[in-house]
Fold each of these.
Amino acid sequence: MVFLDHDGLLDCNEAALRMLGLASPEIVLGRRLDDFAPTLQPHEQSTREYVTAHVEAALADGQSRFECQLKCSDGSLFVADIRLHRIQIGGGQVAHAVLRDITVRWENEQRLRTLKDAIQASLHTLTYIDGVTQLPNRESFHEQANQAINRAIEISRPVAMASVAINDLSNINNSLGHDAGNTVLQEVARRLSATIHESDIVARVSGNVFGILFDGCTEECAEHSARDLLAAMAPVIRVGDHEINVGVAIGLSLFGRDGRDLWDLLQNSETAMYRAKAAGTDTYQFFSGEMYTIALERLVLESRMRHALEHHEFVVHYQPLVSTVDERIVGTEALVRWQHPELGLIGPDRFIPLAEQSGLIIPLGEWVLVTACRQMRVWRDAGLPSIELSVNLSPRQFHKPNLVEMVAKALSVSGLEPKLLVLELTEGALMDHTDATLNTLGELRAMGVRLAVDDFGTGYSSLTYLKRFPLNKLKVDRSFVQDIANSPDGVVIAQAIVDLGRNLRLEVVAEGIETIGELDALRSYGCEFLQGFYFSRPVPAADFEVLLRAQSDAP
Ligand code: C2E
Ligand code: MG
Ligand code: MG
């Protein structure tokens, strides 16, 4: 127990002396309570100010309570719970303090607090920090970016969003291992962080994508920043003995113009990023409204196409191939169309490229092949003359490892003779992976299937493959036929292509014959087969059957 007033200690009891390690009550007289305490309390406050404030409060208000670290004369520290009460002694007021040693409880509380802080911190790390790069993760980015956007709205400050994708990260992971991939991620994260300003936010938002919010950034500033980021990515990254050139694609969106909230900004910068990626590595692209429409249309179209395949909305039309000599039908090309319930008949140029990109061409192409082979069988069984069937193969189908099996299966389920099937390949498909290509072509030929180069002259125009690969046919692209009428050069070129094919002992087919003039020209160059609207457009199976029947009935 201790008595004290504004000026200091007045008296104390035995227990207080023991607590403070003092010999007699005289020692405390005229001293202040904080003389028996360290200068600073554990919470860093000055002990004198802290104690004075409570004593003053007790004297003014009647009571006060606080915890205070005190120092025993042997130098050991302890914590006391101090309750102060104002009492009247003679004419004056003094404070009566009861001190209780609570060191053990206090230390336990302290330990608990530290533990709680540590748990809190690691929980925060788990929830908000990306383990590989130590950057904020997606959740944290959303939270921070949202706050920054809201602040920017309040003071009408510009904001820009960037999505930065590392190209080929999965290749690096697959070929050099995940540690190498992580090293690349860490180095990219470091470079990004070093390039942006302090007020900007960078985070890893998904496997290979980083998000950056540029605070106070206009279009020019965003463009500038994108260039800086690209420059920062230019030096190679060393991983063990390897030097890796990391390419990045950057998509940018601007607050206001491209979106008025985080979600729009993020989505649009990502759309722009995919565009940048498609345009080649190491480039940036601003979002544009047109991209949105394209992205949306694609998405809708792609899912509609899957639906269409399941719901049998695709149909195959047939266009005759005729012999130049007598203009009789010697073959037919299967051309797919989409019979859309609302939009009507959609041509392949509008959906084949997307099917190729999305991989849907694999089931679609197989369906076309099987359908057309079966159709041929139906006509043969109906006693119609047997003709050749041409089916287009897209590059993706051609490079699929089980192509040969797929073709063999189509032939066996339909019972079509292999020699009546011609597979049309584009120059593009033939240019890649030449050894694998040679094998595939060899296997197809071994089955008895015949092979044609479609749209000849529009692709890589490297002629070496014509000699190297076991091809049977060359289809001269329609554009050369059109050029015949346009210029004398056109005549020379068309003639040269036909000659080239004939000299390589390939059958030559000219595509896109629309007029009798074109027919006569091609005939005079010695082209053996023709195809075009002049003879017939691609037509449904039933109409093609009519053409075929008319021909077989004719003398
Ligand atoms: P392609 O294989 O070169 O097919 C010939 C295209 O030329 C067809 O267009 C045909 O309708 C058109 N054509 C034929 N004669 C004339 C003519 O006299 N004048 C004009 N202006 N055009 C003519 P279509 O049916 O629109 O097909 C376009 C392309 O789509 C095809 O070009 C082919 O590359 C692709 N395609 C069509 N069906 C399939 C398929 O089942 N699988 C794959 N992978 N591609 C296909
Ligand atoms: Mg074709
Ligand atoms: Mg063609």
Amino acid sequence: MRIIVAKDYEGMCVNGANLIAAQILLKPDCVLGLATGSTPCGIYDRLAGKYQAGELDFSAVRSVNLDEYVGLSPENDQSYRYFMQKNLFSRVNIRPENTHVPDGLAADIEAECQRYEALIAGYGYPDLQLLGIGLNGHIGFNEPEDQFPVATHRVALTESTIAANSRFFENPAEVPRAAITMGIGSIMRAKRVLLAISGENKKEIARAALCGPVTPQVPASILQLHPDVTVILDAAAAALL
Ligand code: F6R
């Protein structure tokens, strides 16, 4: 595991974008595993900047996203498909048909999970998987549990997550109750993993995930067993390492 500590969020994003850009230069038709959330926004900004400066070509890149809410359409501004369109896909020359996010509107969610896992497997799993980490150590929507979930699956969101999300919705009935997420097994099959951690509030979980025991109670801790992981942190998140 390589650990890079940057001075601040900006520095972390510069490092993260450089590593992803290097992956695309190395293999122009690479498969990128992508994440949503606040952490990668600055990384996506810099990748878009490199494309606009003519330094990067996404025309052959394929992408698979980690997760999506059940019941939200791509047009819903809380959906992860919407997030990806806004923050990255619409700003670079990636082909729409090469971008994949689980279909939260699928009539049969179990079948959608199987289709998505087969799609990732058909791609040979990501060449590089970008991850953020939740305050409880989750990666994707893989929450602390008694065992590591293996393949893409449906997750029932906890009451606290539903309550936290409700601020983004006018109508409480619209707040998603479930999500589809790649499993820990799907994530661990990526050839390389790039875990980005930012902020003072992540310092405890950063230490638990990177230095503590490998346990499904801290899902990100399994990354200690992956042969090619780079962790980029800002100084605030690295304070307890
Ligand atoms: C997002 C995802 C989540 C986030 C995590 C951290 O697709 O899978 O695991 O990476 O919740 O979110 P932020 O970056 O908002 O702190």
